[in-house]
Every structure is written in C-alpha cells, then in structure tokens.
Write a structure and sequence with these properties.
By secondary structure, the chain is an alpha/beta fold. The protein is built from 15 helices and 12 strands. It is 39% helix and 15% strand. The strands form 2 sheets. Strands 1-7-6-5-4-2-3 form a 7-stranded mixed β-sheet, with helices on both faces. Strands 8-9-12-11-10 form a 5-stranded mixed β-sheet.
C-alpha cells in the first residue's frame, strides 16, 4: 500500500474514502471496481519471475499472496480505520487466527476479555494453548482486573467493544495505556461499531480486527475478515503467516465487501437510528425487565460510549419477564424478523443467546456472564422501525 505522503485519500472524509479509495483503474478505464478472477499472474520473462519471488521486485505472483480486488478492499479499509496497512482474510476468525499465529510464540501470554465472540475464546483456549500460549480471561469493564492480569510475557490484550450480547463498553484509551505500560499490544475487534462509529487506532489501540461478514458487507452475503494496523507490525508478523498459512480472502468476496463499504456510513447511521428508537420503546414496555443499549442513559457506560463512539450501534438486547419460555415465545411469534445468528445485516435478526451462542456454557457460567434465560438479542436492521416494533410486540409478555 502506498505511503502516507503519496496517498491522496488520507485527507478525505470517511464516506469519500469508502466510495473511492484504493481503486487502481486498468487500461479499460472501468468506473466500477473490477473482480480479478485469477489464481496466478504472468511474468514478462524468467528473470522477472526470479525478481518477484525473491521480493526484489514488488508485484503479483499468486492470489494467496496478493490480488488487485483484495488489495483495493485492503487499502480502503486501512484508510477508513486510520491504519497504515490492512490484511484481508477468509473470515473474521481467520483474521484472529492469522494474528495469533503471526505474533505469538510458546511461552507468550494473552489477556482477553471474557465477553468476546465464542469462537475467539475457543481458538485461544483449545488451540493456541496447544502451542504453549496461555490465555487468561478478564471482565471487560474491570480495569483493575486488566491491570492485575498483565504479566511480563503478555503479548497482547484482546477485546470487543461494545460486547455481545450485553453491549458493555470498554475504555479503549485506558486499556491501551495498560497494554503499553506492560510492553504489550492492544487488539480491538471492531465488528460492532465499524470505523463509521469508532476508530480504535486513534484511541491508542495497535491492531483492529474485523469480521467483514457483519456490517462491512451489511447484507449477509459473504464471509470475510481483516486485520488493520501499523505497516511494520503487520508486514513483519502477520502477512508472512497469511501468505504461507493461506487464510486469504477470495476476490469475489472482496468485491462484495467493496460494494458494502460504499454504503457503510449511511447504513450505520440508519442502524443507530432504528436501534435507539427500538431500545427506547422496549424500555417502556411492562413485559421487559431490562434493555441493554449504549445509547440509553440507563446504560452503565452511556457517557463513555458517547465519548468514544459517534453512534451507539445497531445491537439491542433485552430481558423479558418469564425466562426462556417467554423469550422463545416472543421469538416464535415474530413474522418478519429473521431467527438467525448473523448480525449487521439490513434485515433485522433475533437470537436467544442462552440456548444458542452461549448454549455451551453451564448455567453457572451463563449466570456469571450475565446471560439471563429471558435475554433476547436483536441486530436491528433498516426496515421501518414501526414494523420491527409491531413484529416484536406480538410476543411481548404483558
Ligand atoms: C462474527 C464475529 C467474529 C468472527 O467472524 P467470522 O467472519 O464469522 O469468522 C469475530 N468477532 C465478532 C465480534 C463477530 O461478531
């Protein structure tokens, strides 16, 4: 990716970047981004092949390493996150795995929020542990636990904010200070906010990871992921693993994500609008015991979220009176919203965390994680909010 001083898009706003950055027109002068469907690239002669393979000459060799459509996506997302470099991956989990394999070694320690995506916990607990990496899990918003948890061997701190499904908000700047004081990196999974609402790198984080599957696509079509950060950090540690390990993004998926990015800021504004209206309405319903949404003054980190994010996001969770039976009844009474685990889609989706995403936990573990049997998570879509409301109202306990 081009350096700062020659990169014209760095001076532009996020929406402009999301629409225009990263595209290198071919001699055909196409207006829309092309999809480069090719596994390898042709060399002019044997000596050029040698120069490319040895790294003396930059350029394409093979699409596991680089692909022009994927590179456009990488440059665009890097700019939007305010990072120097982005590495696109086959999925969000591939991004986290690539990061782990690229920068960790036996004897290293990872300090991770307890409230992260379930597969992130499994990756660290069941797989990275096989290679001698020790992970400790701490409560997301407890700064003392983070401070007390770092060790000399801690390589990075990892978190998501807001968390899923309870939308707890972590103080990124404070955690960056804790990480840096300990000589460790801060990694933030920015899936819930996207760069349209939150820029962790500007708040002191070193690396951002994404599941492009969610809001970056925004229409529930493709699986993909990304790592964003400093050139030196990603070039030395994570890119070499990606091109060798092979969890690369497909050009078609990159093209879908490029079209998704074009409307990201507009969609996020719409998700925030609908979510706030829905959260306020839910809070006024007698059958609802509690609503979790960072845009409500009743949220424990309302002020931090207002300071750190430019919008409260599209995820709203709430607890209905009557436990699992009542929650399932509400879910099964809906006619429009989709019962599916994906989030960040223009279509509203609904899940029951206690029996799906958090179903593997024991009742005690769920209790400790705050996952009530009556908890419902909504990824608020862009339908008319009155229609979403009507769809949920039908099954609300009165
Ligand atoms: C979905 C998700 C992931 C994993 O992404 P995939 O694209 O499904 O592999 C990681 N983190 C968060 C917060 C997610 O929501």
């Amino acid at each position: 990716m081009a350096k700062d001083n020659v990169h014209p898009w760095r001076a532009y706003g996020l929406q402009t970047q999301s629409i225009r950055a990263g595209q290198a027109r071919t001699p055909e002068n196409e207006h829309s981004d092309p999809i480069f469907v090719t596994s390898s690239y042709v060399f002019d002669n044997a000596s050029q092949a040698q120069a490319r393979f040895s790294g003396q000459e930059p350029g394409n060799i093979y699409s596991r390493f680089t692909n022009p459509t994927v590179r456009t996506f990488e440059e665009r997302l890097a700019l939007m996150e305010g990072g120097e470099r982005c590495i696109a991956t086959a999925s969000g989990m591939a991004a986290i795995m690539t990061l782990c394999m690229g920068i960790l070694q036996a004897g290293d320690h990872v300090l991770c929020s307890r409230s992260v995506f379930g597969n992130t916990i499994l990756l660290l607990k069941n797989f990275m542990s096989k290679f001698g990496v020790d992970t400790e899990f701490v409560p997301l918003t407890d700064l003392d636990a983070w401070r007390g948890g770092v060790r000399p061997s801690t390589r990075f701190l990892f978190l998501e904010t807001p968390s899923n499904p309870l939308t707890e908000v972590a103080d990124i700047r404070a955690l960056a200070d804790i990480a840096h004081d300990a000589g460790a990196l801060l990694v933030v999974d920015n899936v819930f906010c996207t760069p349209a609402l939150q820029k962790p790198l500007a708040l002191g984080a070193d690396i951002v990871v994404h599941s492009a599957t969610k809001y970056l696509d925004g229409q529930g079509r493709c699986v993909g992921g990304a790592i964003v950060g400093r050139e030196e950090l990603l070039e030395k540690h994570t890119y070499p693993f990606l091109r060798t390990g092979g969890a690369s993004m497909s050009p078609f998926n990159a093209w879908v994500f490029l079209t998704g990015l074009e409307t990201l800021a507009l969609r996020m504004a719409g998700h925030c609008d609908n979510a706030l209206k829905l959260a306020r309405w839910l809070e006024s319903q007698p059958g609802v015991r509690r609503v979790f949404y960072p845009g409500l003054p009743s949220h424990p980190q309302y002020e931090l979220a207002a300071k750190q994010q430019s919008g409260a996001g599209g995820i709203v969770s709430f607890v209905v009176e009557g436990g699992q039976q009542a929650a399932w009844n509400l879910i099964d009474s809906t006619k429009m919203v989709s019962i599916t685990a994906n989030l960040g889609d223009v279509k509203t989706t609904i899940t029951h965390p206690a029996t799906t995403t958090h179903g593997r936990l024991s009742p005690e573990e769920r209790d400790r994680a705050g996952i009530d049997d009556g908890l419902i998570r909504i990824s608020v879509g862009l339908e008319n909010v009155e229609d979403i409301q009507r769809d949920l109202e039908r099954g609300l306990p009165s």
